[in-house]
Amino acid sequence: MVGVSDATGRPPATDGPVAAPGGDSGADPESDRTDDDRARRHRSSAPTDERVGGAASSGTGSVDRSPARTSARLAVALAVVAALWLPTTGGRALGLLGAVLVAAGALRGRRRRVTAGAVALVAGVAAAGLAGAPTLPLVGATLCSLLAWDAGRYGITVGEQLGRGASTTRLELAHVAATAAVGTAAALLGTASFLAVDATTDGVAVVVLLVGVALVLSALR
């Protein structure tokens, strides 16, 4: 008879499956462990992706785009030479102002300051010419002024495109040398034109000098 224990004290037999201890309803423990492992792997991979992304962004932002050192130093040196080459007080004052502007622009990557400094240097040349300065210092100062302008702007461009850490010394020196060769030829042409003219007044001398400046500018550009 069902539900009555026998004389041996064994529990009575029951119909149907026996429930597992602890109230387990039959869920698969292997499936639960697999889901937990997947969740842990997903959580551990997320910080790794963030670290990789952060490293990539920091690597991109670490490139120094400052002006190239060689061109910047040459621009400053040429501007100072141009200012000191001017023989008159007024011309030298304008030249020193221009040299300061060229230095600030070439070292900090400001093209407008480099251009403003070159304009001040050329204005100093014109002032010295009006004061009756000799021709050779005027032509030399003009050439150095325009070379300083070209070197300063070129250094900014090289820094922006290749970065300051790149090895560009030969490239910069080759550019400055080529520009100096063309500029010197234009300056000699302007000087020859001046010597060919019977310049009896300072006004004529300044006009001829400005023609030489225009030739140098066109050669540099």
| Low-pLDDT residue intervals, each spanning 5 or more residues | 1-8, 17-25, 46-60
Give the overall average pLDDT.
75
Cα end-to-end separation: 116 Å
Strand content: under 5%
Outline: elongated
**DSSP strand count:** 0
Rg (C-alpha, Å): 41 Å
Structural class: mainly alpha
The percentage helix is over 70%
* Number of contiguous helices: 7
Quaternary state reads single chain
The major pleated sheet works out as: none
The SSE order reads HHHHHHH
Keywords summarizing the entry:
single chain, 221 residues, elongated, disordered N terminus
Put the structure in a nutshell.
Residues 30-39 have a biased composition (Basic and acidic residues). This protein has 221 residues and is mainly alpha-helical. The protein has helices at residues 29-61, 69-85, 89-108, 111-130, 135-162, 169-196, 202-220.
